[in-house]
Amino acid sequence: MASRAQSFEIGGMLGGSNYHGDLAYHIVPNETKASGGIFGRINFSEFWTMRPTISYLQISGADSNFSEYKLRNLSFRNNIYEISNVMELNFRPFSNQRMHDRTTVYALAGIAAFYHKPEAFFNKQWVELKPLHTEAKGYKSFQLAIPMGAGVKHAVNDNIIVGFEAGWRKTFTDHLDDVSTVYPSLPPNSRTLSDRSWEVSEDGLSKASQGDMRGDPNLKDWYFQTAFTISYRFTPIKCPF
């Protein structure tokens, strides 16, 4: 029967991305950046779908968004390149069959690998932070994450499916923002970007010392994505019975 037959989709998504970490203890709407991706869907049944995805997301944050952080004066952006594979669970039977719904809410969860590169804006240019060792503890550019979220999708016809979803990525790093532990001992050029309190102090001098806490290593960073989706479904031949 066609209701049990697999179908395949190819599509894209476009939306916004944001982050939670040492430079943002809650989502800051004005830090929302663009994100997008391409994906395939393998529909095993009317309830279960596997979706491999390649995505680009940008996140950013700044102490200037929070009055209690302003004297630390750190800021960043990060370009994230992600490959993920998630399973979608449709809450309503969803396929091209007439006895099934044309709209469903779904939940998703899976695994992702990503490459990231935190940068800071200084002297009218973006400077990559990891090579400067601005953090006392080194970190890897390639990381793993657990995507999870929910969405809604609607079949415009047998082939075109549109939707909207919100997804969270639980990471295992505290360095998306290049802020985690203490202020290290650094040469002057690296120290300038590791401790930027001098930029906002009245006397132009640094207000942090080597070994002072720069961030909270016990809290891992998260990044988020909300996106509109559209895909084309290659439908199997329907059973007339």
Ends apart, CA distance between termini: 8 Å
| Averaged pLDDT | 93
Low-confidence blocks of residues: none
Name of the top-level CATH class: Mainly Beta
How many distinct beta strands? 9
Order of strands, main sheet, comes to: 1-2-3-4-5-7-8-9
Structural class: mainly beta
The amount of beta strand, in percent, is over 45%
CATH arch. level architecture = Beta Barrel
Topology at a glance:
Elements: E1 7-20, E2 33-43, E3 48-62, E4 75-90, E5 103-122, E6 125-128, E7 142-155, E8 160-171, H1 188-194, E9 222-234
Antiparallel strand pairs: 1-2, 1-9, 2-3, 3-4, 4-5, 5-6, 5-7, 7-8, 8-9
Give a written overview of the molecule.
- The protein has 241 residues and is an all-beta fold.
- The protein has one domain: Porin, CATH 2.40.160.
- Helices cover 3% and strands 49% of the residues.
- The chain contains one helix and nine strands; from the N terminus they run E-E-E-E-E-E-E-E-H-E.
- The protein has an eight-stranded antiparallel beta barrel.
- The termini are close together.
- The mean pLDDT is 93.
